[in-house]
Amino acid sequence: MGTSRNVERRTILKAAGASAAALGLAATTGCGGDSGTSADGTVTIRYSWWGADERAKKINQTIKLFEKKYPKIKVKTDFQDYVSFWEKFQTQAAGGNPPDVFQNAVTFLRKYDKRSVLLDLKPQIDAGTLSLDNFRAGVTKVGEVDGKQLGVPVGSNTMALVIDKKVFQKAGVEPATGWTWDDYFKALKTIHDKTKVPGDTGYFSIMYLYDLYLRQNGKAFYTKDGLGFDKADLTEWWQDGYSRVKAGIITDPKTVEQDRPKSSLSAGHGASEFTWDNFTVRYTAEGSSEYGLAPIPTMDGKHTGQYLASLMLSASARTSHPKEVAQFINFMVHDPEVGKIMGYDRGILASTQQYDAFKPTDPVNKEIAQYEADTARAGVLGTITPHPSGADTIEAAFLRIGGDLAQGKTKPSAAVKQFFDESQAAFQA
Amino acid sequence: MTLVKESPPVTRKARSGAPAVKRRGRRENLAGYLFMSPWIAGFLLLTAGPMVASLYFAFTDYNLFNTPKWVGLDNFTKMFDDPRWQKSVEVTAKYVIIGTPLKLLLALGVALLLAQSRRGQAFYRAAFYAPSLIGASVSVAFVWRSLFSDHAIVDRTMSVFGFHVGGWVGNPDWILYCLVALTVWQFGAPMVIFLAGLKQVPKELYEAAELDGAGAFRKFWSITLPMISPVLFFNVLLETIHSFQIFGSAYVVSNTYCGPADATLVYTCYLYQQGFKNAQMGFASAMAWMLLLAVALVTAVLFWSQKKWVHYENATEDAR
Questions:
Q1: In this structure, are A297 and A227 located in the same domain?
Q2: In this structure, are A299 and A419 located in the same domain?
Q3: A chain contacts of residue B172, beta-carbon cutoff 8 Å
Q4: Helix (H, G, I), strand (E, B), or coil: what is residue A18?
Q5: Does some domain include residue B69?
Q6: ipTM over 0.85
Q7: pTM score, two decimals?
């Protein structure tokens, strides 16, 4: 302490000044919300999405095109994987600071509409800034909730059965349009008997697949504000699933757990997986086999319960630049060059300008196009209703509890009760 | 202690009058507080403020978007009916009860070995301490995940000895031990503290005991253990509290799901899921305060128990 006696007023002032400056700095940058208008009239908007690096590279290219055409608008970007994205988004939105424009999906529309986070794009459409013309039939419906346009689709996708072609060939199994669940489970057994590879990676804990199964039986996973099935339905579904795990035709859940974040299909520990049709792009990059698309099994030989879902662009209700955001969305969904760059990364391009501009040349993208064309031609596509608020939590719970069950750590009846309890809490949250 | 004697206030007082010193002292204090102000502000804004807020939220229904609605003790009563909360308590308790003693035993054992003078002592100490420096990092948790997978080194080694468990990471019965192993491996920090304690034990006591014919075990039990009991107490306290707060390794080793089958659903992980995934911020806040209470209770019990087994003799004075 002996040296401190020469503290002078100047030093004190300096210290005070430095602290004040540090705090002031913290106050301005702390919230990270630096979208705004600068002196020369340049507007900055923030755009975030979920996806892998590959998607980010493509999106960054499209943003360069946008900034060239609209030199007065700058775009700041941010991306994470699906789960982290929504965690971060929820926190940002709660803090009143969501990105101005972001990727969205049908599961989140009601949730964030209820919390007044989403901008109704109708006024921008009426003003002519954003156009809903020239979209493939019906896709813009996906973004509509209670008469509001809360999202504009960039691409459409549908649930499919993604298969490891090499394993299916080796086992001599050929999926056919209209095959039944019995056919499918027999096929899994054949595959396992002949190749030792389990036929499927765990169909029974995928919310979107159970939805299709329920639709085939005249129900659906969700009603407007609750679950569209009862405990007996789910008990049966999970009971069957568990016995198939025990029979060895479904991948051991311990393996599934270890393969994460990879899928057990692309890790070579399962021969098929129910997921979105655009996932073949990812699995082809991730795995060492060839991956293709097969029809969803049915009850009656015809109805698959499938519908066109979609990734969308939505805007924040709190954005101070609704017009610029609308211009951005309009450019991203209609510009043919953007379509060429993005390809089917986010599903089959939604607007006709982009759909016509991109002609897939590689087998993977070609097969996705073919699959959706076939599905549409078969006339099996139903309409999707926006999921009730809480659906995101329920999707995660369905996956988790289904996994617990597969591990044999809980009985089907207990698992079903747990799921219904958690769903109740999620709807109320 | 010597520093105090050398410091200049005495001479200063002699040179200038008392009021001047007072003024200067006050000014020095002011300067001190100003220099500290960023940290004081940080503490108030980033620690104390949120704590008070979370205490309030603990009694409300709050989903991050609504205005918090007062629900009294609902969140706390809900906890005891929630099977996943019970599971998280069970997992955390298991982790603390198994991991902490193992870690401390290993730390004490290695410290006893390293306390003896031998060649390369500094190297061994550094080598055993190293895991404590890197052990808490996310990358090590990733390494751990691959070490304990199917056909990885742990699985193979165990198979050689006839134990066919497979990967621990995907197995709900084993994955917790994977986390226990990770924390035990970081025994270096308590080991260093034990070493310091062992160095304080006066040699004369051992010499006297040897004259009386005491064996190695007797010396350890009757001299070493009582003499280092304050250090042991400190380590037990620190490691127990630390264990209760496990989050990072569970989160990463389970690949963010704290599974499989909730086998690594440690308390803070469930708190995180409820707060930030399910947006049940009221419930999560209540959980946080419950954890604080539990840790406080355990700490109180430890402090109470030290009367029975911790000896605060002034060793150096006795030796002199």
A1: yes
A2: yes
A3: 407, 409
A4: helix
A5: no
A6: no
A7: 0.84
